[in-house]
Amino acid sequence: MQGKVVLVTGANGGLGMHVTQAFLDAGATVIGTSRRIQQSDFNSPRFTAVPAEISSHEAAKVHVDQVVARFGRLDVLAHTVGGFAGGQSIADSDDETFQQMLDLNLNSVFHILRATIPALRQTGNGRIIAIGSRAALEPGTGIGAYSASKAAMVSLIRTVALENKDAGLTANVILPGTMDTPANRKSIPNADFSKWVRPSAVASLITWLASDAGKDINGAVIPVYGSDV
Q1: CA separation for the pair 62, 132 (Å, rounded)
Q2: Burial class of residue 111 in the structure, from the number of CB atoms within 10 Å of its CB (0-12 exposed, 13-18 middle, 19+ buried)
Q3: 210: which of 54, 78, 113, 169 lies 20 to 30 Å off by Cα?
Q4: Over the stretch 133-183, which tens digit does the pLDDT of each residue have?
């Protein structure tokens, strides 16, 4: 990954920390973005923290334009931003929760895709890797809004793969099961953590998909469920 410029959204999140570090370890130049990212979050001269919002097309475009202007190119988008809300049936779900899931899990992807695709196409071998969820394929009771938002995201990424294969740009989505993050441990303290997906394993897969070795993988929906299959 030496010489590659990588944009990681949600770079200081439970998964994003591992993804950012994995790209740095692979030799990439990494721009990490989130609302509260700090330069001190990673100890590397190839890391640049850029606090930013991607909650609108305008904000995402300004952010990406600044990245390309500063670094001259963009080779990889690793999108790890997302959120979860659940506990209610579809019949009992409120408008606010449903819209929140769409904003966090679908609209944010849409905005960052529109902003990054032009730059990624210019490299001739750009990469997009997004994080979905097992729930996108296997919905469950009480998580209808979350499942629907992640399923729509999968469709969006696969469409991008079809629309941009002429430029050598690949787009893939990873569907983890429950990941072993501090936030998940706190919310489900009595779970068997050994069955959960290790964030480092997902990060390794992302860096592989972004490398030359992963160039033949495009439009893939990749399940990563750990031992809880």
Answers
A1: 25
A2: buried
A3: 54
A4: 999 999 889 999 999 999 999 999 999 999 999 999 999 999 998 888 888
Kindly give the residue spans of alpha helices, DSSP state H, lying in the chain: 16-25, 57-71, 95-102, 108-123, 144-164, 182-187, 199-210
CA neighbours within 13 Å on the CB side: how many for 166? 2
CA distance linking residue 95 with residue 4, whole number of Å: 41
Contact call for residues 104 and 130 (beta carbons, < 8 A)? no
Give the integer Cα–Cα distance in Å for 131 and 148.
14
CA separation for the pair 83, 181 (Å, rounded): 13
Cα(204)–Cα(184) distance, integer angstroms:
20
Q: How far is CA 131 from CA 10, 43, 70, 190, in A?
A: 11, 25, 26, 25
Instruction: Output the 3-class SS for 1-17.
Output: CCCCEEEEECCCCCCHH
Residues in the chain: 229
Residue 195 exposure: Cα atoms within 13 Å on the Cβ side? 8
H-helix segments, 78-197? 95-102, 108-123, 144-164, 182-187
For tokens 């740009």, the residue is: 169
Write the pLDDT tens digit of every residue in 217-226: 999 999 999 8
Q: Compute the distance between CA of residue 127 and CA of residue 173 in angstroms, rounded to an integer.
A: 11
Domains and CATH numbers, the chain: 5-224 (3.40.50.720)
